[in-house]
């Protein structure tokens, strides 16, 4: 291929088309007319010998070829930006939107401090806290560029991702003041009352149940909810017991906190972003603020 015939602007438009999967939205994002974006899509189809966007039921979807182009295209454009580096703006002058993928834990206790810190240091930065679909989906979103920062338990290293350990968490038990299980609390009292389990997938079992089975014990899961934020009010109005990450209790100081009667393994949270964004000052600033809030 003759690179002299390749228009770099075409790849910028293609990046927006693949992100939005919608010609009009891509045009609006780039300040183009819809006919201009449509014409660019036709040129991209000719360049890659593929439809790239196909019509579905009332929407458009990416072809397999288009999906395979997303990550390398993001990396290529990021590399060009690094090559032609613009004058560095002060943080207060940057206007940018950053998308953060995280579950309600830790969003419950980092979103407020992050927003307040940005108001003082980088007021032009806007945030989108994205719906949580699990660590695997978050990692895929970092790779294809649809998420900028993710906070989760990322068990394995990946050469394409910057992954920093920011929090080692432990579990505690939470229950209402005056709960009849509190006097002489132990394993029997813990298992005598129904439990609240937090599961984004609606699962009624967790690794704790396997550990209890190893001890020849079981528990009753009386309620499964999708978020930690729902639990404190449910505990206040019932005799249920919940096992929660210790940081959650900072938002519910009126509840009683007890240690688990048996050892329960905690977890490590990681803060991650793609290596191609290593020189993105806005992203690094937000990542630093998140790390400070988590540590």
TrEMBL record:
GO terms for molecular function: DNA binding; DNA-binding transcription factor activity. Keywords: DNA-binding, Transcription, Transcription regulation. The keyword Protein transport does not apply. InterPro entries: LysR-type_TF, LysR_HTH_N, LysR_subst-bd, WH-like_DNA-bd_sf, WH_DNA-bd_sf, YidZ_PBP2. Transmembrane segments: none annotated. Belongs to the LysR transcriptional regulatory family. This is DNA-binding transcriptional regulator, LysR family.
